[in-house]
Amino acid sequence: MAQKKFPIHPARPELLCWGCDTYCAADNMLCGNGSDRTQHPYELFGEDWQSWGEDFKGPDPKPSPPATEKPPDAA
Q1: Which residue from 44, 22, 49 is spatially nearest to 33, judged by alpha carbons?
Q2: Does 56 fall in a domain?
Q3: Residue 72: its pLDDT value, please?
Q4: CB 44 within 8 A of CB 73
C-alpha cells in the first residue's frame, strides 16, 4: 500500500487530525490519538515550517586524542 502524500500547505488544516496516516476529521477521530487532534506543522510553526533546521551544522567534531608514544618493548 502506498503512503499518502503529506500536504505542505493544506487549505483548511484545522479540519483534520495530522497525528497518523489516517487524517481523520477533527470531530471524528478513529485512531484515538489522544483527546485532541494533532495540529499540522503549518499551524504550529508557520509557512516556512519545512525550512526549519536546514542550516543546522551539527555539533563540533571532537578533537582526536593526541598521539601517544609506544611503550618500549619488554625484553
Answers
A1: 22
A2: no
A3: 67
A4: no
CA dihedral 17, 23, 25, 26 (to 10 degrees): 0
> Number of folded domains in the chain?
1
Query: Does 65 fall in a domain?
Result: no
5 in a structural domain:
no
Say whether 38 sits in a helix, a strand or coil.
Answer: coil
> 25: helix, coil or strand?
strand
10 neighbors 16 (Cβ within 8 angstroms): yes
pLDDT tens-digit readout, 3-54 = 778 888 889 999 998 888 888 898 888 877 567 888 999 999 888 888 877 7
pLDDT given for residue 34 in this prediction: 61
Could you tell me the residue range of the domain that residue 24 belongs to? Answer: 11-50
Q: Is the pTM of this model over 0.85?
A: no
